[in-house]
Amino acid sequence: MQKKSLLYSGKVKSVYQTEDPERLVMEFRDDATAFNGVKHELLENKGKVSNIFNAFIMQKLEAAGIKTHFIEQISDNESLVKPLDMLRVECVVRNVAAGSLSKRYGIEEGAELRAPIFEFFLKDDELGDPMINDEHIVAFGWGTREDINKMRELTIKVNSVLKELFLQGEIILVDYKLEFGYNNGELLLGDEFTPDNCRLWDASTHEKMDKDRFRRGLGSVVESYIDVGRRIGISSL
């Protein structure tokens, strides 16, 4: 299946139309960005590693009964996906205090939480992706009560699947972000799941193995992504 006109180009991915309106090509580029695009670099092989990583995770989630937009990997840095009418809502689960949670509440980074925290954020770079609640989503028409309940249910189910998967590789799933959209009336997990949109720490040393390596200038970004992938069983990295 050949990609045709560019449909959308984001910070690290481009999406192309194909001859089939129910099939899109999602291309992972070598771009690395942080702080809403203020920091930007090209990292060799990042697109390939992210694409392979995402394909592996999406297939694991599908096997666990979580429906996604992913269809198949078609090249080193491209995958075939279903088109989605995306909701303007980001779903975040936090298992350990880090990032904005630590800053917002003065909680020491690395503090274990008594229970996972689920949060909604509005997907809007210009507004800084503000935190929102159920009432905002309904009042402003960003989703329905049914959407809210389904997104929460699926995001928490993802947590149970992936926490176990990463722990098998001696990695802590600290937190992550998911996005959802509709395809023919069905709510599906969209976007991606890579170390770009989650936090992953070595279980013994708490060494950062995710995008924080880029945010904080720690180096070895792609190498860490590969290490994570190999630990959880991605043999093609």
Describe this structure in words.
The protein has 237 residues and is an alpha+beta fold. It has two domains: 6-81, Phosphorylase Kinase, domain 1, CATH 3.30.200.20; 85-220, D-amino Acid Aminotransferase, Chain A, domain 1 (2-Layer Sandwich). It is built from six helices and 13 strands. It has helices at residues 46-63, 99-105, 134-139, 145-168, 212-215, 221-231; strands at 6-9, 13-17, 24-28, 31-34, 39-42, 70-75, 78-81, 85-96, 112-122, 131-132, 171-183, 186-189, 198-202. Strand 2 (13-17) and strand 3 form a beta hairpin. The protein starts with 5 loop residues before the first strand and ends in a 6-residue tail after the last helix. The model has no long low-confidence stretch (mean pLDDT 97).
Can you give me a brief rundown of this structure?
Pathway: Purine metabolism; IMP biosynthesis via de novo pathway; 5-amino-1-(5-phospho-D-ribosyl)imidazole-4-carboxamide from 5-amino-1-(5-phospho-D-ribosyl)imidazole-4-carboxylate: step 1/2. Helix content is 30%, strand content 33%. It has 237 residues and is α+β, with helices and mostly antiparallel strands.
Oligomer: single chain
Give me the CATH fold name of the largest domain: D-amino Acid Aminotransferase, Chain A, domain 1
Distance between the termini: 24 Å
Largest sheet: 6 strands, antiparallel
Report strand %. Answer: 25-35%
Helix content: 25-40%
Please count the beta strands (DSSP E, at least 2 residues each).
13
- Domains (count): 2
Low-confidence stretches are none
- Please identify, by name, the CATH architecture of the largest domain: 2-Layer Sandwich
Topology order in helix (H) and strand (E) letters = EEEEEHEEEHEEHHEEEHH
Which whole number gives the mean pLDDT?
97
What's the CATH H-level superfamily name of the largest domain?
ATP-grasp fold, B domain
The number of helical elements comes to 6
User: Which CATH class of the largest domain applies here?
Assistant: Alpha Beta
Organism: Piscirickettsia litoralis
Protein name: Phosphoribosylaminoimidazole-succinocarboxamide synthase
Pfam families: SAICAR_synt
Keywords: ATP-binding, Ligase, Nucleotide-binding, Purine biosynthesis
